[in-house]
Amino acid sequence: MKRKLALLIAAVMTVAMVPATAFAATKVTVADEIQVATDKIFTSRVELKRDNDEVKRNEDFDVTVTLVNGEFARVDDDSDKDYQMQVNDEGRVGIKKVVIKDDDKAVITIDAEKYNMVQKGSACVIPLIVKAIGEGDVVAKFTSNVVEFSKNDVVIATAQKGDITYEPVKVKTFVEDADDEKAINEITLKELTPKVFEGGSIKLKLSGNWKFTEDQDDAEVSFLNEKGVSAEINVIKDNEIEIVFDGTDFEPNMCSEMTISKLTLKPLKKCKVGDVATITVSSLASPKEFSNIKLEVAKMVKEAVTYSVEDKELPVIWAGAYNDDTNTLKVSIEENTGDILNTSRKATFTFPEGIEVADVEFKGNGNDDFTSEIDGNVVTIKNYSKNNNESNKTDLDVKFVLNAAPTFSGDVNVTLGGQFDDVTLKVATVKAPYTITAKTSEVLIDYRYVPVNDIVITEAEEGILKEDDQIILGVEKMDFEDAGKAEVTEGDIDVDVDIDDNYPSANLYETRFDKALLTVTVNDESTEASTIVISGLELYLDRTLPVGGYALQNLGGYSRQNDGAINILWENSSPDKDEYDDEEAAIFKYKAVTVNDSYVDVITSARDQDDSTTNKKIIITVGASTMAVGTETVNLDAPAYINSENYTMLPVRAISEAFGATVNWDNASRTVTVLSGQRIISMTIGSRTMYINGTPVAMNTTAAIVNDRTFIPVRDLANSLGISAINWTEASGTVTLN
């Protein structure tokens, strides 16, 4: 049976309810990312871009800006609310004026005719002069009274404590006993408060067993977006440098960015392996003092070759996906002395099982004529240096394009071997693009419409599942009969669920499934990570199925029409043997991923068969008000007890029904009848004889009634139901039936 969830009328209503601004054409962007100190004034250059339609009116229209974690800066602190931000049309096409309504709200009036003259893709720039209130993002929310102007929320700055911040410095390595000097990597300092650097100076103090070289003629200081500002570098001591700023033309309300480059260090004779050079940056004679900043800039190493991962933030690779952009990572190799990386040596990069190398690219200053071999998850390189001059060192970058198997997750560590020093680097992280969870359902075989537990699908991030993507789910040796209903409990993805008993259709890599599958189809991708709960599912179970667990599987779907996989989890997999046997393809042979290896747990065979086989386990304790039935806890209104003849007595109805039997009571004859598969079991209160399919069987003691419930000895009840695995624990007074 097939069931479609999305009704046409619901789709129409959904479209009708979408606000017109959702289809607008103007976008708001920020020209530069700004970091600023808390409670400080800054200027953010916000761009209004007309990407598509013109504004369908000739008169003025308004755009409202509302600030979060910020307020429009005043000229001073008096109460007349005289704001610094005053904008007219001069130099800003179409922007007539800005009226600040309150500390956190302003209205920008735009001349529609002039605004429409702005070429597509160009921008009108509005300088927002704002003061950050607290730590975190300062957000500007833009709305308008015309549909062509989008509703936009943009981060205009990030506020943090202090007056300056810095970018991480790549540490320069020095080799033990090399006795050389090197220029360290760039130091970039950013103002969080405008004019911290203006008219002052800063001190760089070097600590550790290092010194500045006397000759710093090549050292430079440069400013981003600052004109007429220069700096003088003075070496005061072996471990101190003063930088004096010359010029007062710093932009008001703009935070400056300063870069110090080509500072040269030399290790002292007592410098040992592991010693680190640290530079402390402090204000020396500045109008605005700032807190000291400590930067590690160099270290002494023993190895002749060192390795690092280029990206500060390691890339995330989606399991099963094939994407040259997101699946690319870089490893940098630096030769610290001599010509270690010479032509007579080879090197290997070994990735973990479940990772395949799709492509590799090398670049270096020694030689670009590299040769490489890819063997699954191992890359071998040679001819990576042909330097004849020992002072000419080889640095090289290796770019890998990796594929992760649909079942792989966690860190990607690459081991460098061969002629390289053996070292392991963490270079990436693999995550599942979405997860599927489903609890185990214990079922009795009723053939048709057997209910099973919900299936939950959760995206790792927004937009992972694209329009027309499908997730195809199947249960081993079983058919889906009812697709239930899908509810999006988080996010805004739009999906249908259906049952297809002939999937895939023709010309799909000759793949066939001979059972009914549950298919989830994406109608519209999400704008925030979504969770889909599919409930009301029912299965068809063949009567010949033995007891045991049956897996829920996420199955690969492939389409020639769509040129491959129809879902992100299968983009780098194929059912075509020639493809995944190709050593250069980096393609996996996965056709299914197990979600739950025991999604359906058949605990009894069919009712028209002998129920002598079961994997249901029941644990019942004498005197307890509950018993454990598989993974569930069942309440008892009449607990087990030990009678005067020292027999453990169990409640007939509770135990029998837990094993899937039907229990009837005849009050006139005071007889209990149990129907279990082909067995008909009966017993009469006060009698020591039970009947199984008409055959009398002696019991150890008489059937009794306690609290309106019939009880018989544990072994008599178990034997009548065909249960031979009985365990009694004396210490706890517990019976286990399985």
**Based on CA inertia axes, which overall geometry fits?**
elongated
Report the biggest beta sheet as strand number plus sense, adding barrel if it closes: 6 strands, mixed
Q: Give the mean pLDDT.
A: 79
Q: In what order do the strands lie side by side in the largest sheet? A: 2-10-9-4-7-6
What is the straight-line distance between the termini? 36 Å
Instruction: Tell me how many strands there are.
Output: 62
- Kindly report the oligomeric state of this protein: single chain
In angstroms, what is the radius of gyration?
A: 37 Å
Percentage of residues in helical conformation:
under 10%
Can you describe this structure?
A 6-stranded mixed beta sheet has the order 2-10-9-4-7-6. It has a 6-stranded mixed beta sheet with strand order 12-23-22-15-19-18, with no helix packed on it. Strands 25-33-32-27-30-29 form a 6-stranded mixed beta sheet, with no helix packed on it. Helix content is 5%, strand content 48%. The relative contact order is 0.07. The model is unreliable at 1-24, 503-511 and 606-613 (pLDDT under 50). It is mainly β and 738 residues long. β57 (689-692) and β58 form a beta hairpin. The longest helix has 10 residues, at 8-17.
Secondary-structure map:
Layout: H1 8-17, E1 26-30, E2 35-37, E3 41-50, E4 60-68, E5 70-72, E6 95-102, E7 105-111, H2 112-116, E8 123-132, E9 136-144, E10 152-160, E11 164-166, E12 172-175, E13 182-183, E14 187-191, E15 201-207, E16 210-212, E17 220-224, E18 230-237, E19 240-246, E20 257-261, E21 264-267, E22 276-283, E23 293-301, E24 305-309, E25 316-318, E26 328-335, E27 346-350, E28 355-364, E29 371-375, E30 378-382, E31 395-404, E32 410-418, E33 423-431, E34 434-438, E35 441-444, E36 450-451, E37 455-459, E38 470-475, E39 478-482, E40 485-490, E41 494-500, E42 517-524, E43 531-535, E44 538-541, E45 548-555, E46 558-559, E47 564-565, H3 577-581, E48 592-604, E49 618-621, E50 626-629, E51 632-635, E52 641-642, E53 648-651, H4 652-658, E54 662-666, E55 671-676, E56 679-684, E57 689-692, E58 695-698, E59 704-706, E60 709-713, H5 714-720, E61 726-729, E62 734-737
Parallel strand pairs: 2-10, 12-23, 25-33, 35-48
Antiparallel strand pairs: 1-3, 3-8, 4-7, 4-9, 5-8, 6-7, 9-10, 11-14, 13-21, 14-20, 15-19, 15-22, 16-21, 17-20, 18-19, 22-23, 24-26, 26-31, 27-30, 27-32, 28-31, 29-30, 32-33, 34-37, 36-44, 37-43, 38-42, 38-45, 39-44, 40-43, 41-42, 45-48, 46-47, 49-50, 49-62, 50-51, 52-53, 53-60, 54-55, 55-56, ...
